[in-house]
């Protein structure tokens, strides 16, 4: 019950790092293809600039998103009611560069995806039989893996991370390492590594922003959920289902320790 109360109180905080839908948003941030009025307006504005002054360079939308410095988080999606744009620690405050915003969003999206897989893995790994004889709480399962499967798992993770780095990050400039250190490619959308085997990625900019918001919210909740499950198992050394059964006995008026030998967790 305490975990449910804490989780309910913190769910609202999962809407961080992104602009609220109630803020004014330019059409260019929602549509990859400009309307006729926008094209005409842009042509008129360009015709008013003297020839000796460089013409403004149009920013090409990435998945329908055009970075807008005037908007929170440069206009990236992710905020929902009731909190809207929520950034109490200032990760996206004014003055943060576009590259830092994209890098923070990249970290948030990827950690959210890993957390969603981890939440599923906690339940599946603890309930389904393992071909390697792995048992017990998920926290204690990794060290039970035989050497060869462990090396294969580590190699797969390394290969995936190297591929992601090559897609989204600029190649290092060893002659001037500070120029490209931690820098994402200008045409890279945070988290979009091109992996979509089921073809779920929308082609419409608004639909893509909605799906990105859904993924972010589920990922944020999964990070909190995984942290809760991991902490719970570190405290009582029980699997998730064993913990649920334990508290069912407690709230049902049954002594959960009946039949347990001294010093044995049951």
Structure description:
The protein is mainly alpha-helical and 266 residues long. It has helices spanning 2-10, 36-47, 98-127, 147-168, 177-180, 205-236, 240-251. Helix 3 crosses helix 6. The two termini are 20 Å apart.
Count of alpha/pi helices: 7
Percent of residues in helices: 40-55%
Average pLDDT works out at 82
Low-confidence stretches: 1-34
In oligomeric terms, what are we looking at?
single chain
Q: Using only CA atoms, what is the Rg?
A: 24 Å
Which percent range describes the beta-strand content? under 5%
Based on secondary structure, the structural category is mainly alpha
Task: Write a concise synopsis of the structure shown.
By secondary structure, the chain is mainly α. The chain has helices spanning about 1-10, 35-45, 100-125, 145-170, 175-180, 205-235, 240-250.
């Amino acid at each position: 019950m305490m975990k449910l109360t804490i989780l309910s109180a913190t769910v609202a905080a999962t809407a961080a790092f992104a602009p609220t839908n109630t803020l004014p948003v330019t059409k260019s941030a929602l549509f990859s293809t400009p309307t006729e009025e926008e094209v005409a307006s842009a042509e008129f504005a360009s015709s008013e600039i003297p020839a000796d002054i460089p013409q403004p360079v149009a920013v090409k939308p990435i998945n329908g998103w055009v970075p807008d410095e005037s908007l929170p988080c440069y206009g990236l999606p992710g905020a929902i009611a009731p909190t809207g744009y929520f950034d109490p620690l200032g990760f996206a405050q004014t003055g943060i560069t576009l590259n830092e915003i994209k890098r923070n969003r990249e970290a948030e999206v990827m950690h959210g995806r890993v957390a969603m897989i981890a939440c599923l893995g906690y339940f599946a790994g603890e309930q389904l039989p393992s071909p390697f004889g792995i048992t017990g709480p998920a926290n204690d399962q990794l060290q039970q893996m035989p050497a060869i499967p462990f090396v294969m798992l580590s190699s797969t993770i390394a290969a995936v991370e190297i591929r992601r780095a090559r897609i989204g990050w600029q190649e290092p400039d060893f002659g001037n390492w500070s120029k490209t250190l931690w820098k994402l490619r200008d045409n890279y959308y945070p988290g979009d590594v091109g992996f979509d085997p089921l073809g779920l990625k929308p082609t419409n900019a608004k639909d893509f922003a909605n799906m990105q918001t859904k993924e972010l919210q589920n990922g944020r909740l999964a990070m909190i959920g995984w942290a809760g499950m991991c902490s719970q198992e570190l405290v009582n050394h029980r699997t998730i289902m064993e913990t649920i059964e334990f508290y069912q006995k407690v709230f049902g008026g049954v002594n959960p320790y009946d039949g347990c030998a001294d010093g044995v967790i049951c």
